[in-house]
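Hey,

Quick one before I head out. I ran the complex with adenosine-5'-diphosphate overnight. Inputs first:
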Amino acid sequence: MTRLIFFGPPGAGKGTQAKQLSAEYGIPHISTGDILRDAVNQGTELGQQAKSFMDRGALVPDDLIIGIIKDRLAQSDAQQGWILDGFPRNVAQAEKLNEMLAATGQGCDRVLSLVVPDEVLKTRLLSRGAQEGRSDDNLATIEHRLAVFHQTTSPLLDFYKTHNASLLAEVDGHQPMDQVTIALKQAIAH
Ligand code: ADP
C-alpha cells in the first residue's frame, strides 16, 4: 500500500514522475490538472466552471476540487494506493484531505516535495506551451501560477512540518529525469 502526495511548483515534473512511479508501483496517478483539462475538453459542467480560473492561472474553487478528489479516492482502483499530483494546493484542501483519510482509516505515506528554481520552471513551461499547446503555458499565466504557488501552496510545507514532519521529503527536481526518479524512490523507501 503506497499513498503519496507529489508537491511542487508548476513545471517541477510532478506529472512526469508520477506517471513513471504509478506504472512501477501499480497505483493510480490522480492529477487534478488532468481531470480538469479532460472536463474542459469534454465541455462538462465542471469544465465550464473551471475553465476561466485555469486560463488565468488561478486556483479553481475548493468545493469543486474537493468533490473531484472525494469521488476519485472512492473508486476501486484507489483502494490499493495512489499518487496525488496537484492536490492539495492550499491549507484548506490539505485539512479536508486529512479529514477524508481519517474518515476511512487511511493515512498518507509520504509528501514528496520537488524543488526547482523559478527561472528553470519558466523556461520549462514556456517550452511545454510551445510543444503541447497548453493554453495556460503562456508567460503571463505562468508568472501568476508561480506567484500562487509561492503565496498559497508553499505554506503547505509548514502545515505538513507541523502535523507530521516525518512525512515530508525534499527532492532536487533540477537534475536529469532518471536521477529525479531514483531520488524519489529512495525518499519513498526511507
Ligand atoms: P501546474 O501544476 O503545471 O500549474 P496543473 O495541471 O496541476 O498544472 O493545474 C492546472 C490548473 O488547474 C491550475 O492552474 C488550477 O487552475 C487548476 N487546479 C489544479 N489542481 C487544483 C487544485 N488542487 N486546486 C485548485 N485549482 C487546481
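Residues 4 and 83 are 5 Å apart (CA to CA).

Talk tomorrow,
K.
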